[in-house]
Each structure stands twice: as C-alpha cells, then as structure tokens.
Request: fold
Amino acid sequence: MSHAIAKVNSSTVAEADKWEVVEGNIYFPPSSVDQSFLTKSDTTTWCPWKGTAHYYNINVDGNELKDAAWYYPEPKEKAENIRDHVAFSKSTAKITSE
Reply:
C-alpha cells in the first residue's frame, strides 16, 4: 500500500495513503493534514489552469514558516481532483512517499 508523509523538522504535518500528484507536488487530502500546525495566510497566487491558490503558514517548534503550504479551494475544472488538498513547499517540508 502507498503512503506519503510531510514532515517539518521532526513534526508530521500530513500523512496519507491516498494523494494526488500535480506538477511534481504531492497534494494531501484535507483529512490527512494536521491543521494544528497551520494558520491561514493572506497570500494568493494565480495559475492559469488550476486557479487561485491560497496559502498557509506552518507553525512548528515556535517558528512560523510563511506561505509554506498551499491549496485550491475553488480550482478550475481540470484541477478539481486537488480541491482543498494541501501541498507543502519542498524547501520547508520533507516529503516522502512509498
């Protein structure tokens, strides 16, 4: 069975047996993300085929990692499979999958 984990330092921020991969990023289902590490950011970015991405700050060990995770609450039709799924910055989180 497949398994994916996102860790920041030694803290597991997401863990899932099912996920989506888009443009090399693992998108974790909302239910697999530990929301206690996340706070919403005001940052948004635009992708022509996915839509508007909204960001989270990650809070681990007393440090806030600004805009280190993102999700698409209202994706365009071609990206509907990642609606509300969360991806993590590879420079911030160690993401493994088996």
